[in-house]
Write a structure and sequence with these properties.
The complex is a heterotrimer. Chain A is of the alpha+beta class. Chain A is built from 26 helices and 27 strands. Chain A has 3 domains: about 240 residues, Alpha-Beta Complex (Phosphoribosyl-aminoimidazole Synthetase, Chain A, domain 2), CATH 3.90.650; about 260 residues, PurM-like, N-terminal domain (60s Ribosomal Protein L30, Chain: A, 2-Layer Sandwich), CATH 3.30.1330.10; about 200 residues, PurM-like C-terminal domain (Phosphoribosyl-aminoimidazole Synthetase, Chain A, domain 2). In chain A, the strands form 5 sheets. A 7-stranded mixed beta sheet of chain A has the order 8-10-7-11-9-12-13. In chain A, strands 22-24-21-25-23-26-27 form a 7-stranded mixed beta sheet. The longest helix of chain A is centred in the N-terminal third of the chain and has 21 residues. Chain B is built from 2 helices and 3 strands, in the order βαβαβ. A 3-stranded antiparallel beta sheet of chain B has the order 2-1-3, covered by helices on one side. The longest helix of chain B is centred in the C-terminal third of the chain and has 16 residues. Chain B is elongated. Chain C is α/β, with parallel strands linked by helices. Chain C contains 5 helices and 11 strands. Chain C starts with a strand and ends with a helix. Chain C has a single domain, classed as 3-Layer(aba) Sandwich (Rossmann fold), CATH 3.40.50.880. Chain C has a 9-stranded mixed beta sheet with strand order 2-1-3-4-11-10-9-6-7, with helices on both faces. A two-stranded antiparallel sheet of chain C has the order 5-8. Classes of the chains: A alpha+beta, B alpha+beta, C alpha/beta. Chains A and C meet through helix 8 and helix 11 of A and helix 1 and strand 6 of C.
């Protein structure tokens, strides 16, 4: 090769470690040139190689009879849902781009996750998102929220897949680093799944979709660095999303896959052409010759390494059976999309990249990828002092409030609890005409699978305050709450995807949080039989001034219903229906919104939680739904029992009248967030069946009151009318953001 | 003194302009095959009070930088004339 | 009756419309690709919702020049039935087949929610069977749905009885409070003078299936079939 060799300084500059530079020399048997160093720097970045997390990710449960593709094998997990169909689903972060340009950052996040789904041949049917921002009173937060929501909406709406749910949490810890996690799920016939693989020497390699520009060069490396105020200045450019192009790419890709002439296909996300070509080649045990000058480019005079690393959106790499080129080209032409042959599959595992006739890089595919030659590190971790400190909290140190009505109003209007309508109404939640939640809300989104009676139940969940207080318990709770949501909506939990948002992994206390979260996730997933199908790790969510964000392992859970008509809703139905609390009340206010925000006590452990108890409660709820005993089910989460009751009442335009229990502190009973509790309503005549079924399942329960017409009453005292409650509940976000 | 500013905000050259791309496709459908490199921006006109040309231009510059253009992805040009 | 649903690049409610016409209304339906120039003998053409050409420039402005539109315009001018929903409505106003224009919503945001609409008269294929006192729950999903027409044009539309639907509350009260996007005279849908071309922003195809617990939109399709039958 004629190119000049690279120096150690250049390698360090690009984020490689000295030992990694040495390793590259060993692999190549020579000193790499600049292009090759660029290649290794992005492929061995945290973003692509998971080098600091993979050891622990491997410990997560991955098996279940339903798994068709295990974690890491394909672009997204693939779960058998019966009748010859599979569901492909995944969640992914776009935190760092969103922090700098919230609109485009969030939009391209939505684009990326959907490409992961349809590159497998699955048609996306539902999207969700999980968002975290700082203090809502800050102008910066408002700017971020508006930009992110508009970005998700404009992209998802035009792409034409409904956004059916999500979560939104505010905390000061996200003031500088917001989290934007996007989820998508799609359906594919099991026989028509496309794989991210390349084989068969002589088969042509195509690039399709948008032309390549200098977008996000070093974006992948960029995501692996702390944000400082200066990085706004060094951002070379912003990736602009084009949902119109994505929609065309979706239709064209599915049409191309249906021909049966596609060997493999992978979307281009982080690290562009180099990532797709190396991962597909490694998986198929072949190599490629790629002529970079044949890549359709948007900008003139692009350098070889720019073409290799560009993260321009809405592109795919497709390997096609030799001889079928014309048919494939015709389909992309029909959809007005670029489709250019840029290379061929070769024997052996070598990737050779040419610019005109010059060989500019020559590297073994295997050496680049996760699970192959990419480095894997074990990081040190140590328990931070705050952990034991938080555990010392005692409820006795907090005085009971004098005015319960005031607490009720405070919580209803708190941004973490208040209605998220301001956000949800900016998303098209109904396109596809399969989302059953529009007119019948439930704890999880329930989306029908076209052409069958089946539905999938989906939810995204993570209370990061709990995870911060206790990573292991907190993350187990996130899984448990997801499962509870699925169960309360009538589904059977099937599998999860995760988005692991943490601070700097080189900080042992941050890494301790990461390890704890993985352990908690493992044990909870084992218990619920929900393997981890994949997901994404986002480290470095921290700034030099403010430290790391709360550890936020967002769980996206998939559930399944054989018959969508078995769905359970969360709204109360009729006056005089009895209200039961299923699960045990506890004298616990730890890490509740009430304790944290109203009492302003920040140091307390995660709320009371027992995995076995949780499992039993869920079995009990399943039985009640299957036997058609109950009218509504809604799990107790943020804001405690009172907020759960309020939500079920407001969704129905009804009220409730309940009594607290003298065995517990009233604030703990009403506002505590101890886990494994569900509020159900039931007709008087079903009372004995309900009680019998719960006893049979060994589940604690208590009758706490009944559904009324239009006010919230506790122990005979009227707290507020349903209408007053609704106006408080619905006012918070619009008044902060309009 | 009163001045009028005519401001053009355009997406930066190196950045993808999906709108321009789709409009080009539409123009081709109309039979205008010769059209190339369509880019779409905004035109903003405003009037302002300032003591002289220099101050007026300074104010317009600030308006562009702080609000009218998103410097991460847009560039701007303007012409300020005394009324 | 044979329905044809036009698919533009960026259409995304085409499949929902086909599903309702075919599976629920039991009608013959074909897809018409925007690059084609043959309407395949369809009696009733539907321009579905979505984001044709990404809604770039102005919603509907580019799709209006798609090859098939020449034939669609001929079809309408010859008295053939033509319905545009949401983006389809926008395309029809851009093409000059329906009066007025659809501007950005008054609060500048995309809005997706259930709304209530009331039929303004029973003198059209879409509204023939509707109860004029009832508010129908039909969802909207758009960023550019604020109906606008010049004063003179608006007067003509009203006098000719060309208004199809108006936004209302759930009891059918017509008040500006329930005018979700700021449309003139609460207008949610209009037709041409000859009453064969229709446009509406709300999506009846999203409210026609029992499985979604709202079938108010089905009444509109029933009406079409009974009127034209």
């Amino acid at each position: 090769m004629e190119k000049q060799t690279a120096t150690l300084e250049q390698a360090l500059e690009l984020g490689l470690l000295e030992e990694e530079f040495e390793q590259i020399k060993q692999i190549l048997g020579r000193t790499p040139n600049f292009t090759e160093v660029c290649i290794y720097s992005v492929m061995w970045s945290e973003h692509c190689s998971y080098k600091n997390s993979i050891k622990w990710l491997k410990t997560l449960p991955k098996d279940s009879p339903r798994m068709l593709a295990k974690a890491g094998e394909e672009n997204a997990g693939l779960v058998d849902i019966g009748e010859g169909l599979a569901c492909s689903f995944k969640i992914e972060s776009h935190n760092h781009p969103s922090a700098l340009e919230p609109y485009q950052g969030a939009a391209t996040g939505v684009g990326g996750i959907n490409r992961d789904i349809f590159t497998m041949g699955a048609r996306p049917i539902a999207q969700l998102n999980s968002l975290r921002f700082g203090n809502l009173n800050l102008d910066k937060t408002k700017w971020l929220v508006k930009g992110v929501v508009k970005g998700i909406g404009d992209y998802g709406n035009a792409f034409g897949i409904p956004t059916v749910g999500g979560e939104l949490q505010f905390d000061e810890c996200y003031n500088i680093n917001p989290l934007v996690n996007a989820f998508s799920a799609g359906i594919v016939e099991t026989g028509k799944v496309a794989s991210a693989i390349s084989y068969g020497a002589g088969n042509p390699v195509f690039i399709v979709g948008s032309a390549t520009g200098k977008d996000g060069i070093h974006g992948a490396a960029f995501a692996s660095k702390d944000i400082t105020e200066d990085s706004i200045e060094d951002l070379p450019s912003v990736q602009v999303g084009d949902p119109f192009q994505e929609k065309l790419l979706l239709e064209a890709s599915l049409e191309v896959i249906a021909t049966g002439d596609v060997i493999g296909m992978q979307d281009m996300g982080a690290a562009g052409i180099i990532c797709s070509s190396s991962e597909m080649s490694e998986k198929g045990g072949h190599g490629m010759d790629i002529w970079l000058d044949k890549v359709p480019s948007r900008q003139k005079n692009m350098k070889d390494w720019e073409l290799l690393l560009s993260e321009s959106q809405e592109r795919m790499l497709v390997v096609v059976k030799k001889g079928e080129e014309e048919g494939i080209k015709a389909i992309f032409d029909k959809w007005d999309l670029n489709c250019a042959q840029i290379g061929v599959v070769t024997e052996g595992g070598q990737l050779k990249f040419y610019m005109k006739d010059e060989l500019v890089a020559d590297v073994p595919a295997e050496s680049l990828v996760l699970g192959g030659g990419a480095p894997q590190y074990e990081r040190e971790y140590s328990e931070p002092a705050y952990y034991q400190e938080y555990k010392k909290f005692s409820i006795d140190s907090v005085e009971e409030p004098e005015n319960y009505k005031e607490v009720a109003e405070f919580l209803l209007g708190h941004p973490n609890i208040a209605s998220k309508k301001w956000v949800a109404e900016q998303y098209d939640s109904m396109v596809g005409a399969m989302n059953t939640s529009t007119n019948e809300p439930a704890d999880a989104a329930v989306v029908r699978v076209k052409g069958t009676d089946k539905a999938i139940n989906i939810t995204v969940d993570c209370n990061s305050r709990y995870v911060n207080a206790d990573p292991e318990e907190g993350c187990a709770i996130a899984v448990a709450e997801s499962a509870r949501n699925i169960v309360c909506s009538g589904g059977e939990p099937v599998a999860i995807t995760n988005c692991l948002n943490f601070g700097n992994p080189y900080n042992p206390e941050v890494y301790w949080q990461f390890v704890g979260a993985i352990k908690g996730m493992s044990k909870a997933c084992e218990k619920f039989g929900t393997p981890v199908t994949g997901g994404n790790v986002s480290f470095y969510n921290q700034s030099s001034d403010e430290g790391p964000v709360f550890p936020t392992p967002t769980i996206g859970m998939l559930g399944l219903m054989e018959d969508y008509k078995e769905k359970m809703t969360l709204n109360f139905k009729d006056e005089e229906d009895l209200i039961y609390l299923v699960g045990e009340a506890k004298n616990c206010i730890s890490s509740s919104e009430y304790l944290y925000s109203y009492q302003e006590v920040k140091a307390s452990p995660s709320p009371s939680f027992d995995l076995n108890e949780e499992y039993k409660v869920q079995q009990g709820i399943k039985a009640l739904i299957q036997e058609k005993v109950i009218e509504s089910a809604h799990d107790v989460a943020d804001g405690g029992l009172f907020i759960t009751l309020a939500e079920s009442a407001m969704a129905a335009g009804k009220g409730f009248d309940i009594n607290t229990n003298g065995n517990f502190r009233k604030d703990a009973f009403l506002f505590g967030e101890s886990q494994s509790r569900v509020v159900v309503s039931v007709k008087e005549e079903q009372k004995s069946r309900l009680e019998a079924l719960l006893k049979e399942n060994g589940v604690t329960f208590s009758r706490i009151g009944k559904v009324t017409s239009d006010s919230f009453k506790v122990d005979g005292e009227k707290y507020l009318s349903t209408q007053e409650a609704r106006s408080i509940y619905e006012k918070t976000l619009p008044s902060a953001l309009n | 003194m009163k001045f009028r500013a005519e401001i053009d905000i355009m997406p930066l050259k190196e950045i993808l302009d999906p709108q321009g791309k789709a409009v080009k496709l539409g123009l081709v459908n109309l039979g205008l095959n010769q059209v190339e490199d369509v880019r779409i921006g905004k035109h903003i006109s405003l009037e302002l009070e300032a003591t002289d040309q220099e101050e007026a231009e300074g104010k317009v510059e600030t308006a562009c930088k702080k609000l009218l253009a998103n410097l991460i992805m847009e560039g701007y040009t303007y012409k300020v004339t005394a009324l | 009756m044979k329905f044809g649903v036009v698919v533009f690049p960026g259409s995304n409610c085409d499949e929902d419309m086909i599903y309702v016409l075919q599976s629920i209304m039991k009608q013959e339906v074909v897809k018409l690709w925007h690059k084609d120039t043959d309407l395949q003998g369809c009696d009733f053409i539907v321009l579905p919702g979505g984001f044709s050409y990404g809604d770039y420039l102005r919603s509907g402005a580019i799709a209006r020049f798609s090859p098939i539109m020449e034939k669609v315009i001929d079809h309408a001018n010859n008295g053939g039935y033509l319905l545009g929903i949401c983006n389809g409505f926008q395309i029809l106003t851009e093409a000059g087949l329906l009066p007025g224009a659809l501007l950005r919503n008054k609060d500048q945001k995309f809005i997706c929610k259930n709304t209530y609409i009331k039929a303004a008269n029973a003198d059209s294929a879409l509204t023939k069977n509707l109860n004029l006192d009832k508010a129908y729950k039909i969802p909207v999903a758009h960023a550019e749905g604020r109906y606008f027409a010049s004063e003179a044009e608006l007067k003509t539309i009203e006098e000719n009885g060309q208004v199809l639907f108006r936004y209302s509350d759930e009891n059918g009260n017509l008040d500006d409070t329930f005018n979700i996007n700021g449309s003139l005279n609460n207008i949610a849908g209009v037709m041409n003078k000859n009453k064969n071309v229709f446009g509406m922003m709300p999506h009846p195809e999203r409210a026609a299936d029992n499985a979604l617990a709202n079938t108010d939109g089905k009444a509109i399709f029933d009406s079409i079939l009974s009127y034209i039958g």
